[in-house]
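Lab meeting, action items carried over

1. Structure of the two-component assembly. Owner: GW. Status: complete.
Input record:
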Amino acid sequence: MSALALDAAPRPLRLRVSDALYRRRALLILLLLVPPMLWVGAVYVGSLTALLANSFFRLDDFTGQVVREVGFGNFAALLQGANVDVVLRTVTMALVVTGACIVLALPIAWYMARHASGTRKALLYLAIMLPLWSSYLVRLYAWKLLLAKEGAISWVLAKLHLSWLLEALLAAPVVGGHSLSFSPLGTFVVFVYLWLPFMILPIQAAFERVPASLVEASGDLGAHPAATFWRVVFPLAVPGIAAGSIFTFSLTLGDYIVPGVIGDSSMFIGQVVSLQQGTAGNVPLAAAMSLVPIAVIALFLWGAKRLGAFDAL
Amino acid sequence: MIPTVALENVCCEYGAVKAVDGVDLALAAGEFFTLLGPSGSGKTTCLRMIGGFALPTSGRVLIEGRDLTDAPPYARPVNTVFQDYALFPHMNVRDNVAYGLMVRGVAKAERHRRAEQMLELVRLPGAGERRPGQLSGGQRQRVALARALINEPRVLLLDEPLGALDLKLREQMQAELKALQRRLGITFLFVTHDQHEALSMSDRVGVMNRGRLEQVGAPREVYDAPATRFVAEFVGAANLLEGELARRLAEGASCALLRPERIRLGPERGARAAGTVTDSQYFGSFVRLRVQIESATIAVDLHASAGPPPPNGARVGLHWSAAAIHRIENGTEDRR
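Predicted assembly:
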């Protein structure tokens, strides 16, 4: 009898709403997706479209106003000598930085995933993440001090009687310069320092998913450690390497502060974009220039897919 | 004759824990040997020291007379079937099976031919193109076996390989493994905590407890004449008679074993002991009764052919032949 009485009582509105949503899963998903869709749709795709549109417009040299006529003048300008140099310089730097990050991250990630445990692992996480908690600019200027001609690095090398090594490095063509803080070598060092955490963490996550028994099985079947690395460990780390490379590669391609603070006066894509839309006020050319990283990364991902980087995902 | 594998007074310590504590063991060529013990007894560590994945802190590991105590896994003529199979997920079945040949530099056509032979041996012909992820547990087991056998090891190490399979499949694989071992004549070292598996497959069984080998012998020896209390209790169901009961029923022994299936029910008159049925458990092919005798409880297994069991509370007489009693001399010695 009491059960019947309970059934007769109307369910509170809150529960009825929850029942209705439970019955209509699609409605619930739609409600959850509205805010992010608005964000991605209006803000993200919208600004990207505006960027793309701008790259086809041109700047009137007399009035300094943007003329909304579709043309390919900006893209033609990208293919001029200086701009081609900028693109090649930036892409080369991004590739070299990515390569160095992979080489440095692999052993650290392996150690973290396979050997460290408990407190040591927590400390390693902290050591890798800690730089990300402090301002990027502070760290950049700290590096400028370290790399300066009278800075800590040249001081240590002088004490070790290794100044000749530094001088030989700085005398090298293309990468050398007046001092570490005024050379592409210095830019490279700082880029690698800044983006290394973004390479270590995905590779470490990939290694965590490789069962220890796979490495043992490879050795058991007669593979030397080098063969085990190339045949088993590396292929299984490739998804992590691909993810980390997307970070390091795109972060380097888009950065305009590091090469301004540390390096010789040669320009990177980000600096050109900043200069064109800021000082020169040529938004259309800046827009065209900023499409270059997007195109390069699309090419990069296509290449990675062709090489099978995402097969194991 | 030189044993295929010999462990000489091997110890393995992890910090303060002695995983293996002074094990001596010699495996003859072509033997199916099983290390049986509960988890943490050191049986897997023994296997890993033979495979080269763990190094002994003292003692020697010899394979065909060669001292390989500190040799890395790739330098040992030994292959392993891992508990989780450890198939390479980024390779198809053929490349998995041929892996051992590939890292030894065997030409592609030759290693593919031999991989197909191995797949036929484990009754998976034509499965070479498939990925490990597309296989069932039993099929993965066969691939792992084929992969380990392609290098023609002197010894095959099997680390609880059937643990992940369901009962029917496990029984089928037990029979297949045993047949395969007879056909190939390779020494098998099998590690398990399942006493049925150990008894039904092995030529010899070594029972491990707390890092020590408690007894090595043929399955029948280990079951009928256990050397220690631990072996008696771990292998099969056991009634351990102790104290007053042992003195009365086992002619003054301090500890004796009486297997439940060696006891028959009968009239109280002329019985060796009499008691009250307190519980009965149905197992299909037999019924296990608990009979209270004074302060002790004795398990009695009644075969299905003995008819319906007496109800709880019934008085029963217990009969057995004198040979059913096995005295355990060091039974009271506490090894723990």
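2. GW to write a short summary for the group page. Key points so far: The interface with chain B takes residues 211, 213-214, 216-224, 227, 231-232, 235-236, 311-312 of chain A (CB under 8 Å). Chain A has a mean pLDDT of 86.
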